[in-house]
RING-type E3 ubiquitin transferase
Amino acid sequence: MGVEEYVELERKASEGVDAATVAPRWPEEQDVASTSSDATPSPQERLMRKILRDASAKVFSQDPQGELVLSTQEKRGSRAAGPQGGGTWLQRFAEDLEEYVEALVLRETEAEFWSKAKALARQELEDKGKPRPPVDSDDDSIDSLDDDKEVLPPSETPRSASTASSGWNERLGPATVCLDACNGDVILDERRLSIKSLSNFCSARTNCCVIAGAWQYEVVLGTAGIQQIGWATPTCPVTNEEGVGDFPNSYAYDGKRVRKWNVSCHPYGQPWMAGDVIGCCLDVDGGEISFYRNGRPLGVAFRGVRRHTPGMAYFPALSLSHGERCALNFGGMPFRYPVSGYRPIQESPKKSLLQVGALVLEVLDVVACSDIVRDSLTTDEYFLMVDSLCAKLVPALLSPYFVDGTLIPFLLERTSGEGGELAAPRCVSLLSENLSDEEISSLTRSVFGRISELCRSSFCAEGAAVTGSRNHPCLRLGIALLENPRIRSTFFASEESFVEPIEGMLSQKQPNSHDLAALLPEVWWEGAEDAGIDEGEMKAACSSLEEAMAAVEASQVRLLLCVLRHSRGTFKALLRAILGKNKGALRNVQPPGLSDNSVLTSLYYALLRLVRPLLAENNEKLAALLPSSAFSEMFLLEEEPGHYSDASRLGGAYSHLRKTVEVAGLAETELEVTVPYQSVLNAGTMASEDSRALYESIFAGYHEEFLRCVEDDGELVALVFDGINWLYHLGLASKCKQASLQLQNQVSAISQLEDAAKRRDQAEPTNPEYHKHLKEACVLFREDVVESVRQCSWFKALLYPTWKQEAMFAACIFQTRLLLQISNHDRLLQFVPESYVETVMDSFHAFRRGHPPVRFLLGHGLEDVVTFLVLHFNDDRIVNPDVRDVMFQTISVLLLHRDFVVAFEENRSAQDSFIESLLSCFDSRFWIPVSNILLRLCKGMGFGQKRTNESTSLIFQQLVQDTCKAKPDLYASFLNRLFTIMNWTATEFTVAMKEIQEREESLVRGLPPTSSDLTQQQRKCSIMFELSVNLLRLLEFVVRELPASFLGDESSSVVNVDRLLETMSFVLQHTTVGPDSVLFERIVVGAQHLTVLEKVSRFAILAPVTGILTNLFVAAQERLEEKKSDQNDFVERVASSRIDVACLEYLAHFVTGEVSSKPDLPSQQRLGNFQDFLSAFKEVQTEREARVEVDDLEIPEKFLDPITYNLMRDPVALPSKVVVDRSTIIRHLQTDQTDPFSRAELTMEMVEPEEALRGEIEEWMSQQKTTK
């Protein structure tokens, strides 16, 4: 067909003439038969022509003008038919197909030529001064070119016409667009379309720019961090600190910070998430730049963009912070979300290539599915025809554009639906059998790369305003294709080729608040009063979300089983590769290339589903599958697996342990880990037929196939359990913490909303401004509640289905018992990775913080967790204090709840060693958690405290008393450290108060210190105050339980009471009356207006002081009754200390006022005891005033202690021949085990009493009294 004929055809079409009357199509059988009696087609030929004709109609159903335009009768008329001259019907079919392809190519070539000719004519008209008509003009001067201008055939098209086609003169650069100029350390893929940043702030731009027109490109986010994506001119001077959008004539959008950038930044757009598709659109002629997120417009970001001036050529450009990655599409593949009116920067492949591919693909699918075709052809004919079709299809299959835009949709449409067995289209089998190794490898790489990207960038569920497809059909397609043996073997040929696609299929895109609003349009919560809120719709939407997520997760399990069926080695390689690349996920500065967190979460749950039945009660399969030395061997491998390299062990660095610990025979250590764990799905709360059916559907079917694939590979089973530990540690733990935080936010937001609503309803109508303010506050609080409820609903669907919680708990108990078994072998525990302990602790907290909290699970296996905590929080084999901190925090948190307290009380290990270990740990590193734990056990027992039974344990209080009596050295050491730390915290508190005063004075004078410095000091002051109060409460508890250690006649008791009274004197002087209390008064007044100081109060610190003094006075009175004496030694000690009577009088007055106003009967009763103490104190003070004070006398020098310069009461001689008082040296030895004068080693057994000197002192004292 020539150009003239084509123009005539187009003219008639534009006039409304039916194309079918003009464009000849594939001939009917009777037409072909009528050309020659000798050319009668065979039945096979007629069948194939019908298939080809039907396929053509289907392919061009959306493009009527594109259906085949070819006069086959004319060409066939010259072709001889029959067995002698025309060849076989297969040859004629191949010729027909070739003619079809030639017709499509010719048709497109002519169309391109005519379009270029029109563009050239418009340009010439414009050059002659005639106004330029629009592109869609019907001007006859363009449609019918000048008579004197020769219309050249397509092969002779002028270059000027070529460059003027379709606006492509509005761009500059090569036809294939890719990233070209890069600043910084980056990694680009082989096509230079994916970029990963390895340095601080990398920038890149393309090899093509635009100078006019409207253009678009897309960016698929691999990570959701700081990236500035947009457009820039070639003069943009990017650096490692500033990038696209930071300079004039550069424009960018950053969804991490939700800003648009052009020198300065302004709020714009929505927060983006990993997997989002960002559309970047530039209208050069209109001077506007806009962005799209997953097809939804974010609005015009920039107007008045400079254009049509020298140097104003705009390149697609982007800048990425460290570790960020993304993939770009400039038109080399179909856009996910094309924007009307904008063109891709890279021209798409020839339309004829795509049409031929689509047609042949349809024909091949019919041939593969049709039994009639198979029955009508011989085997040789069938495979020769298939080979011919595949040969025609190969050029299209090698085009990523065709794979993305035609092949993937075709396969998705023909893959089995949501239910039933997965099956790929039958044409896939024909392709796999007929393509070469190189062709099948290229096709597999393209298809799975695209499936992976679709899974990453699509949600699991659909919403009213969520654009794009769901990820589940893509995941199912991937699984179906892997059922093909050749595709599977090609896909798994190398680790580099299958790990990334598998990760993509394991991902679950995380929605942001805008996405959740589309997924869950209706929001309801307990206590919601809005009439428009429908609880049923909310629950239905949540149920749909959970079902969609469950379907995806089930397919992910099938994906893993598909990998395992291929080979156990491939399965191990996949698991080790994912764990190895994510080993740095918990570092402060994460390395680039980490997997998305959803990959780790999905893989964790998939593995858990495969092995959960092994952890059932009385299941003997685990012992048969898992060698008793499997974990010992794993922990002691000389060449550490990838995820173990650099992993901290409980005993320190692995390299150090290999040098310092005898490892001979350690790898053969046998561990007998039993699992008598009764599933809650089979008993107790969840016992029902439905629960057992749920158990079977979730676990049993997959588990049986898993066992068949594993056979007797114990290494693989051990690796799966090891992987479950690491996946939780590296990925799921952070998800659980996010969920817990969202739940706390929801509770807080609902509380604020209810409070604001209550105040709004109670507000007087006489104050309209205040009422309006409250209404606005309610609106804001309601928005916070709605967002929090949606976030919690997402996490509930992801993390808190019952089967997940139950399976996680079973894994936690298994791992706890494994650790208990390992701990029986002294050396082996040191080689266990720290993650094993941290996972047990963190997962246990996840149950406690669940939504709702998983309390019914705790009756099964809780004893194991308690036993491990009690036995190992003070284990010297655990050298990292951070790990022990985690265990301390776990104990402290658990003891907040009564049911956990009971579990500790009933645990045999806790009864035997818990208190002793706590007292041993009270040192400079762990004194805070230890004091918190001890305070939990005596909560509500102190003066002025509200009585509670939540965590108070009379059993452990008695154990504290028994342990201290049975271990006097341990108790003495604990008490010494308690006094030392108490003095330090109290001193630091006073120092912080002085620093606050100095900062405030500096701010008043306008000196450099800033308000942030003041806030930091206020925070320090609050912390030190709270720690001081806690230690005072602990001291109050010790005094109440063990008063004899302060009231005895022994030197140690004298030292203890003296140190205690020194502490009481310091606290009273700084918090009651006197010059030192002025600062505290200012802090207490300021605390009423500052949230950071809200915990600083006078009663908080004076209440335990009152309790300490009262407890010792009462205990001393009881001792008087036993001795039948009338002199209270404790009161005498207080009177001889530095405690001022004015401080005690203030204390009595203040505490009486505070306690009398509270419903605290025990404390009110003890007020009488304190009043008695104060009266006795005053009496003794009066008596002492009538006596001569030793301090007022001239004491002989030999009677003075050389260290304290006080009168010695019990002199002793040191090995260095120096004489000191016994109490002085006892106190010295609590912190230093050497002679203070010779620095030689010293113990109390080495000192000798100086009885003669003691007699002289007593005689001298007696003489002084007589003189008086």
Summary: Residues 714-762 form the longest helix (49 residues).
